[in-house]
Amino acid sequence: MMRLSSARSVLSRVATRAGRGSASLSSTARMATVARFATPTPTSTTIRYQSTAAAAATPTEETTPKATTPTPFVSTAERKYEYFENVELTPEGVAVIRFDCPGKPVNTISFALKDEAKVLWNQEIDSNGAVKAVVFSSAKPNMFIAGADIFDIKSIEDKSQLVPLIEDGLDFFQSMKKKGIPLVCAIDGPALGGGLEWALWCDYRVCSDSKKTKLGLPEVKLGLLPGFGGTQNLHKLVGLQAAMDMMLTGKDIRPKKAKKMGLVDLVVAPQSVESVAIECASQLADGTLKAKIKKKSWMNWAIEDTPMGRNMMWQQIDKMVEKNAGGNYPAPLKIIEAVQYGLQEPKKRYQKERELFAELAATKESEALIGIFDGMTQMKKHSFGKDAAIPVKTVAVMGAGLMGAGIAQVSAEKGLSVLLKDTKMEGVARGQAYMQDNWKKKVSRKRMTQYEYNIHSSNVTPLTDSTASWKRHFGQADLIIEAVFEDLDLKRKIVADVEAVTPDHTIFATNTSAIPISDIAVGAKRPEQIIGMHYFSPVPQMPLLEIIPHDGTSDSTKATALEVGTKQGKTCILVKDVPGFYVNRCLGPFLVEVSALVRDGVDLETLDKSMKKFGMPVGPITLADEVGIDVTSHVASFLSNADLGQRMDGGNIAMMQNMVDKGWLGKKSNKGFYSYDGKKKTINPDVKAYLKDYVQPLDRKLEMEEIQDRMVSRFVNEAAKCLEDDIIENPVVGDIGLVFGTGFAPFRGGPFRYLDQVGVASYVDKMHKFADNYGAQFEPCQLLQDYAATDKKFHS
């Protein structure tokens, strides 16, 4: 009945359901794009987190990042304003105001921009009788306004101070309206968050049909709500159902749909946006054009504008939010509250909106989600120098299985020429079919045009061992990505074969999830050009990429891998070459503790429910089934024999190997911990009977909180140990890695922000108690103990 009934997750896929089996354990918990607000590039940090109390308490002068003072803006006749180009007045009396934020490719709304906009308006527009209409445009190509400047929000410690600042911004928008002249927006590129809210204050909106143009209010993804009138102004244009759908999901709206739903008035070619907007503004001023609000259908009127229909609508929305947010995300509820209050108390609607915004900005959930977004921004940069990376135009992918085909797909979609090679044509054909099926789905869902489908397909060249020209093709490759079986001898042979036919500059990357990169590089002619690129399956959906250099890998190779991964749409983290790297290494102790809890009598459904309640996308039992019991068992066994020592003690991972021997491989065999014969999965009765001999129940029932803490503490402690051992560079990398690689509860911000929120000292005390009760595997690492002793946080 309602458009909202088919809305996407209120978290906009912040943590989605697990995918099917893959080459690495952590690849099932998917993470999607966090809000597309823009933020200044943070100063990179090189602080090392040594496990000594003194170092933890006081960073040295050499390791403390030094802030740079920006050059103050000086107004000149050629450039009167810092955030805007000089105002242009057409002969018809249309003032064109172009956003142009300095020093970056995007425009963002900051408090400084707001203050300057007031000055500009007062000096150039308000008292100028020659101005008959205003067009807001952008001096930057393919860019209107990317959103609010998140740094402004982060910089204010007392979030209640946001209320008067936002009020000042609202006063400016309302003063624009009081001028009584037509306001038109010329949108080419993103109009997101505060950018769309600015456009909503205008009378008419013209946008381009560019692929880069998108409109949306993604604040919910940062645990916030639209604060510059969005919760009150949007539904007047598009209706309550569409407005709630946009605000609760944070989804992007493309130009064609924006026109259809009434969000914009015209869609034109990019090169015509500003000129058409000026023409429309002139016509609005002289009365030859009238701005019209899209008329509601009879059905939408019945749902949105009658007491019975509106009541049913709100009930449906509440159900959707409860189902998708699970009580962990306060922003959706506050968005609903803001809209409902505005409908009931229209004179106070904007006041309520900004008060709710300030409340959300003060929540730990918003802090966590903003931290994730900030971390994503940091991961797009590297410190190896602007020209360190080699140009990459051609990527050769060795192995056309699920992983290889996925890597080929994300490369071809970004315009890279891809050589997809397998031993036989049947393998290559399966890889091509995988990519084409994915692209056909995108075409059917209007997320890709047929032309784009054809271009992507033409970017892939299939090759086999029997292809006479494969060596000649590889002679053009800039980067090789190997995605074959986990066999060291095979990988070394591939390195030798590839080095014999590729140019000297070609980089060799391996997608191994376990074998040390240094071992693969042994005997190579160009070991400095060998690196690990650990993708997570399914590659097109999973956002994380671990970049693993060995000790001899050159900076140029590291920079190239990072830049290619970023081009492929991945969030890349640099990880030390150790068993399990970072993500899988953290999952090892967690898996062992799952087996320990099963032994202690916790039933399988309770284990799943406990971790979902904590905020994970799926529970550990479902995770094992989705990945495959065989894969899960292999990872756990591998890490048990690696260098983690007692941190892999406490459980019995042989339980899973016995299940593998019985053919209970999980979802792929229709039987694992769960049975998948019917429409609804149920606990496998054979596993239930099998576990009776394994279970040694405790003399007391474990409460859900203790179950959660036992699993999560093993996870978090290993993350901290990775930081202590320089496996990851800093807590931001650690948070991003586990949120994007395992689905670690996004509203908690990752393991290190979670520790900050609950308190490192109290968490260390909890782990000591667990160590006393269950064994040394719970002993907190030295870094955690140091931070507890000095009352230090991982994030300032």
From TrEMBL:
Residues 394-578 form the 3-hydroxyacyl-CoA dehydrogenase NAD binding domain. It catalyses: (3S)-hydroxytetradecanoyl-CoA + NAD(+) = 3-oxotetradecanoyl-CoA + NADH + H(+); 1'-[1,2-di-(9Z,12Z-octadecadienoyl)-sn-glycero-3-phospho]-3'-[1-(9Z,12Z-octadecadienoyl)-sn-glycero-3-phospho]-glycerol + (9Z)-octadecenoyl-CoA = 1'-[1,2-di-(9Z,12Z-octadecadienoyl)-sn-glycero-3-phospho]-3'-[1-(9Z,12Z-octadecadienoyl)-2-(9Z-octadecenoyl)-sn-glycero-3-phospho]-glycerol + CoA; (3S)-hydroxyoctanoyl-CoA = (2E)-octenoyl-CoA + H2O; 1'-[1,2-di-(9Z,12Z-octadecadienoyl)-sn-glycero-3-phospho]-3'-[1-(9Z,12Z-octadecadienoyl)-sn-glycero-3-phospho]-glycerol + hexadecanoyl-CoA = 1'-[1,2-di-(9Z,12Z-octadecadienoyl)-sn-glycero-3-phospho]-3'-[1-(9Z,12Z-octadecadienoyl)-2-hexadecanoyl-sn-glycero-3-phospho]-glycerol + CoA. Residues 52-72 have a biased composition (Low complexity). Its EC number is 1.1.1.211, 4.2.1.17. Keywords: Acetylation, Fatty acid metabolism, Lipid metabolism, Lyase, Membrane, Methylation, Mitochondrion, Mitochondrion inner membrane, Multifunctional enzyme, NAD, Oxidoreductase, Phosphoprotein, Transferase, Transit peptide. It is found in: Mitochondrion inner membrane. GO terms for biological process: fatty acid beta-oxidation. Pathway: Lipid metabolism; fatty acid beta-oxidation. PROSITE patterns: 3HCDH. GO terms for cellular component: mitochondrial fatty acid beta-oxidation multienzyme complex; mitochondrial inner membrane. Residues 48-72 are annotated as: Disordered. Residues 580-676 form the 3-hydroxyacyl-CoA dehydrogenase C-terminal domain. GO terms for molecular function: enoyl-CoA hydratase activity; long-chain (3S)-3-hydroxyacyl-CoA dehydrogenase (NAD+) activity; NAD+ binding; transferase activity. The keyword Amino-acid biosynthesis does not apply. Its main location: mitochondrion. Heterotetramer of 2 alpha/HADHA and 2 beta/HADHB subunits; forms the mitochondrial trifunctional enzyme. Also purified as higher order heterooligomers including a 4 alpha/HADHA and 4 beta/HADHB heterooligomer which physiological significance remains unclear. The mitochondrial trifunctional enzyme interacts with MTLN. In the central section; belongs to the 3-hydroxyacyl-CoA dehydrogenase family. In the N-terminal section; belongs to the enoyl-CoA hydratase/isomerase family. This is Trifunctional enzyme subunit alpha, mitochondrial.
